[in-house]
Amino acid sequence: MPQAVVGRLMRWTRWQLHFWRMTWHAAPWLTAVGVLLVVLRGVGVWLTIYASGRLVQQLGDRSGDVWVWLALLGMGIALEPLAAAWLESVVAGIQERFSRQQVLLVADAALAPHGIEHLENPEKAARFSDIEDYLRGMFGVNAMNAVWSVIGYGSIGVAGFVAVAQWSWWAALIALVAYRATAVTWTAYLDVLLRDLVEDGSLGRRQADYLRSLPLERAGGKEIRLFGLTPWILRRYHEVWAAAFVGIWQRRSKALRPALAGSVAAMVLLAACYVWAGRDAWSGTMSAATLVVVMQGLVQLAGLGPLGDYNVQAIRARFYENEIRELRTSYGLPPTLHDDPDSTAVVPATGAVAVDFTDVGFTYPSRAEPVFTGLDLHVPAGQSVAIVGVNGVGKSTLIKLLCGLYPADHGTVRVDGRDPATDEAARRKVATIFQEFVRYHLTLRENVALPLLAANAGAEPAADAAGDPTPAADRALHAAAGADVLGRVGGDWDTILEPGYDGGTELSGGQWQRVAIARALLAVDAGAGVLVLDEPTAALDVRAEAEIFSRFLEVTRGVTTILVSHRLSSVRHADRIVVLGPEGVVQDGSHDELLNSGGAYAEMFRLQASRFEKASGDDEFVEVSS
Ligand SMILES: Nc1ncnc2c1ncn2[C@@H]1O[C@H](COP(=O)(O)OP(=O)(O)OP(=O)(O)O)[C@@H](O)[C@H]1O
């Protein structure tokens, strides 16, 4: 056998074994019942064939067992559809559990690396989204239906095979080869059709889809009508579509040839079997009873033949289950879900902790230019530090390294003496609110109290008021100047912060930022020792940001805090200000020290101040409206 065929056979076996192992893992009892029902479908068909043969024989002999075989025939006829109907409801249960398992396995893989490189890398991210699209699409949702239909019909085919083999093993084998040949070649053809029609993401197809959808869009549709572009768009769509279809037609006709050849060969082989059986019956070497059995057997053997979309979908089901396994293996994860004892462990609150960057070098995997070549920064426990610097100098990158989202190429990053890139306990000491913080579609209480809820996720839920995070959330929200958020939801902590839900509501950008800051404050209660704000207030005006930052510094006194902002007036109250330049830390000191020393900071401050003017009776700067 050629090596390629052996390779395909081995891969097919590996996929099958893995698929059934995961099905069993998701729903062991239902799978066992499903297998029993599949067997019953085959038994029902076999009984129908066998009993009808015996009945014909008894009728011919005029012997006395006619009623017995008639009853058995009736049982056989009833058994197959009944088992098929029960199987359908069992398969629905298996699908539900199987889908849940798949979704959890993929989510677990996405969360496995602490870093986010795999979500930023286009190739790795595409792999996740391809699997996600499949799981959400109609093929993923109907996978079990296809797979169990194929094995259900397969069981009927086996019954047909047994019936024909009673007369001639050779005939049974020839018919089997004929049906399998058509199944394999037609499935390959349908696979090409499906890929081209549903899954093809080629540039031409995407352009054609875009042009087709343009007149249907509200914004685009308006302009298209105003400019009278409809005829041009339709003609362009037709051209792009026709060009995109050239390749599709070529692939189709290439795949159609073996499918047609397979069908013709199968027809010849099957015709030979029928002729053979007819000849034996005609010559008297085969009884009428056997002829009845063989003819039915040949018909039912088609269950092992082509089943159209079921075959194609069943292949996809196994392919994607295997993709999930390979994805997990690439992140060092086992095929099934594992209990991570670390992930729910409560981090003891040890108070403020120190942060150390020593001779850190870092280059993004997708870039040639390093962001840092030898960065040194030491923040003692309890100090508040502001990181400032021009756009692109590496402020956010520094925070990502601190959170362990990327490992340093050389040098060391330490939080409380531990490496956040590898040590979960160090990572959980850092609570960060990024500019693009998450606006969870959860209740206000959950949005604020998430750090507490996550820290207690492993513990038994407390039945009394002691387990209620609302008082802590309320304190944090007030400390973050978010009293108006409570007013917005009418004091109801159970309001979902998304208008798409019943009774849900939307917050303004500023209100969301206060919720995020309250969340950061609660992280301290949950064990964090360093608080980081990476410009979450950038959308606010200067005065509002300055107010939030000084309030934040006030309520976090004694906690190690790192603030990143472009606005120097916002961070001037930090204990220490660090100016980053392309060569690393270029200035380091308090606001007054840096202003007096007359370096980059003083220059930046002067530049910003020239765009501001002092508000009367206020020592902060406000933007001059132009
Ligand atoms: N995921 C990434 N992949 C590749 N390069 C990146 C990535 N993120 C940032 N960079 C690049 O790294 C450099 C530092 O970016 P970073 O976002 O840390 O700067 P920043 O000082 O925070 O900038 P800003 O003030 O504009 O927010 C920039 O040149 C940026 O283009």
Automatic annotation (TrEMBL):
Keyword set includes Metal-binding: no
Assigned keywords, A-Z: ATP-binding, Membrane, Nucleotide-binding, Transmembrane, Transmembrane helix
Transmembrane segments: 66-87, 146-164, 170-190, 259-277
InterPro entries: AAA+_ATPase (IPR003593), ABC1_TM_sf (IPR036640), ABC_transporter-like_ATP-bd (IPR003439), ABC_transporter-like_CS (IPR017871), P-loop_NTPase (IPR027417), Type_1_exporter (IPR039421)
Molecular function via GO: ATP binding; ATP hydrolysis activity; ATPase-coupled lipid transmembrane transporter activity
Ranges of residues in domain ABC transporter: 355-607
Compartment list: Cell membrane
One cellular-component annotation, GO: plasma membrane
Membrane topology category: Multi-pass membrane protein
Name this polypeptide is given: ABC transporter ATP-binding protein
Native species: Flexivirga aerilata
